[in-house]
Amino acid sequence: MNTSHILIVGGGTFGINTALELRGRGHAVTLLEPGPVPHPDAASTDISKVIRMDYGRDEFYMEMMEESLALWRQWNQELGEAVFHETGVLYFTLDGMGPGDFEYESYQLLLKRGHAIERLNSAEISKRYPAWNAAMYPDGYLNPQGGWSPSGRVVTLLAARARAAGVNIIEGARFTELIQDGKRVIGVRTADGGEHLADTVVVCAGTWTSTLLPWLQNVIWSTAQPVMHFQVPAAELARYQPPLFPVWTADVGKTGWYGFPAQADGTLKLANHGPGWPMDPTLPRFMPEGTEAMFRKFFAESLPGLKDAPRTFERLCFYSDTFDGDFWIDQDPERPGLVVSAGGSGHAFKFTPLIGKVTADVVEGKPNKYAHRFAWRERGEVTAEEARFVERK
Ligand SMILES: Cc1cc2nc3c(=O)[nH]c(=O)nc-3n(C[C@H](O)[C@H](O)[C@H](O)COP(=O)(O)OP(=O)(O)OC[C@H]3O[C@@H](n4cnc5c(N)ncnc54)[C@H](O)[C@@H]3O)c2cc1C
User: Fold this and answer.
1) 350: Cβ below 6 Å to ligand 1?
2) Is 225 close to ligand 1, i.e. is its CB under 6 Å away?
3) Domain extent at residue 178
């Protein structure tokens, strides 16, 4: 097989896993990243991300997660520490689950695919998960498969693996423009005036991708999402940790709310998988007025024990949103030598074990059973993955 020199722009989970996979296939690989890997502003850099296989009616992503889950469990053995905490995931609903609901459709598809899950009602929720105001949630289910991953730590571990495998990671290198010979992309320039030539350039710049490649702005854009951490008192920690408090979603398709068990130091993360705010990721980030009040209102209603918990951290983290919520992994049809791998749309981290493989197959022009869904495409109806709380036609 022909090997070549491949240049990757961006050291988040897309970039690092693509680098690892291509290096493993014998290519020479260089990765450019403006900051440290992991970069503090990167979407992949966080204390926790949800790992779930529940995708409403979307059997494609459920199947892709069935394969990813097995790899996550394998990584727990291989990487020498827990990178996937399989706490199970709770799916609560504000009304009885019904056709068309994210939870109902996920539940039906899980049963159809032979997965063991437990239906829950308020009485069960109250008994098993005492921190919750169970009266709010008459229905739902527990999927024992799934949980959370310390995403920033995962990127650190995989970057170390990449370096050990011979990937040349250059920190402090900011892509500014492509170098082209006619239509063909033959390298990139960086802010320090450097030129980096390669046989193929793979842009994995997450939410910054359509800023760097403006012809994508009609199909990929940046959306800011709020994340907050609160401090759970040590005396109450067990109440907010598994088995009493696994990863959860609270009618997420209609509210956006989801969250995590408290960490060992009492840090509890709350976030919203909702419409967010369109913002330019290159500009200073300010949390919109009233956001904390919105978070505390959720606590007051659903997790009353946390309504006055001290907030210890807040952050705007950016989705690389595609118009349809599917990732964007393909060769640029107008620019031979350029591959784009981005568009995580707020739900790609859980596929980390497969993202690098899909991208590497695209780079090498090899068939991949998932790649068709991420191929270059015309803008169509604007929508999002089924768990996301957005306006739908
Ligand atoms: C608030 C929030 C919550 C999320 N929760 C979940 C979840 O629970 N489960 C889940 O599966 N997914 C979740 N996601 C989605 C997931 O985090 C992303 O889809 C994924 O991490 C994207 O990875 P990436 O490598 O494409 O982007 P990033 O991790 O953002 O990496 C892009 C990299 O490109 C670099 N870069 C930028 N500009 C340049 C340049 N000019 N030159 C070189 N490099 C550059 C950046 O510094 C950065 O390191 C969430 C995302 C957010 C924002």
Assistant:
1) yes
2) yes
3) 5-44+152-220+323-389
Count of domains for the chain? 1
- Does residue 299 have its Cβ closer than 6 Å to ligand 1? no
Residue 63 forms part of a structural domain: no
For ligand 1, mutation pick of 17, 21, 49, 355 (most atoms within 8 Å of CB): 49
Q: Is 48 in the pocket of ligand 1 (CB under 6 A)?
A: no
Please check whether residue 256 lies inside any domain of the structure.
no
Ligand 1 mean position to 208 CA, how many Å? 9
Across 192-207, average pLDDT? 98
Residue labelled with tokens 């290198």: 173
How far does the chain reach from its first CA to its final CA, in angstroms?
Answer: 47
Q: Per the domain annotation, does 368 fall within a domain?
A: yes
pLDDT in tens, 163-177: 999 999 999 999 999
What CATH number is given to the structural domain containing 166?
A: 3.50.50.60
Indicate the pTM of the whole model.
Answer: 0.98
Tell me whether residue 188 is in a domain.
Answer: yes
Which single residue is written with the structure tokens 């690989």?
A: 29
Locate the ligand 1 atom nearest the alpha carbon of residue 16 and give its number.
Answer: 25
